[in-house]
């Protein structure tokens, strides 16, 4: 009787260990192709010359390249070229709102290391928290200029309306 009880206990423990090992380890889903983990390419990059440099604005990618909602956006790499050379990274914008209910939908970056009169071309690359990168965004060309000063209120003159001729 005790021998039979002992073998039942051993069989029960062995089946528990096998079941736990089957549930706890191994890949449970098929591998994910890289395009299914890459962020969608940014298509709305815009640039403008401002007082302290060049301001870039773009929208948040919300899906992966192959579809599916993206929840692990990590950061953006800002790339710049002077028009003739290769692109090089000039900045990074971290994304810190992954766990928030309402996430930031638009991002901005100001490149302060610019020269007045010089033209620049920018692109933005998105990265996930696992370092999968998107394709470069649409290029945004900007010529760095000095912004016009606002009108002086002391000598600002409103245009005089011109009367319309009567028929």
Quick tags:
167 residues, alpha+beta, Immunoglobulin-like, four-stranded antiparallel beta sheet, three-stranded antiparallel beta sheet, 1 helix, 7 strands, 14% helix
Give an overview of the whole structure:
By secondary structure, the protein is an alpha+beta fold. It has a domain of 110 residues: Immunoglobulins (Immunoglobulin-like, Sandwich). Helix content is 14%, strand content 29%. The protein has one helix and seven strands. It has a four-stranded antiparallel β-sheet with strand order 4-3-6-7, with no helix packed on it. A hairpin with a 2-residue loop joins strand 1 and strand 2. The longest helix has 23 residues. 14% of the residues are buried. The model has no long low-confidence stretch (mean pLDDT 83).
């Amino acid at each position: 009787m005790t021998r039979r009880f002992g073998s039942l206990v051993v069989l029960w423990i062995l089946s528990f260990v096998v079941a736990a090992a089957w549930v706890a380890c191994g890949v449970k889903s098929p591998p994910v192709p890289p395009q299914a983990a890459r962020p969608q390419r940014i298509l709305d990059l815009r640039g403008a010359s401002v007082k302290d440099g060049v301001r870039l604005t773009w929208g948040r990618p919300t899906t992966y390249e192959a579809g599916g909602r993206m929840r692990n956006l990590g950061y953006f790499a800002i790339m710049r070229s002077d028009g003739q050379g290769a692109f090089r990274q000039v900045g990074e914008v971290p994304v810190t709102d992954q766990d928030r209910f309402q996430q930031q939908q638009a991002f901005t970056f100001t490149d302060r290391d610019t020269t007045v009169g010089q033209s620049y071309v920018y692109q933005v690359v998105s990265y996930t928290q696992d370092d999968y990168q998107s394709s470069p965004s649409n290029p945004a060309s900007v010529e760095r200029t000095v912004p016009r000063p606002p009108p002086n209120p002391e000598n600002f003159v409103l245009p005089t309306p011109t009367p319309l001729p009567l028929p």
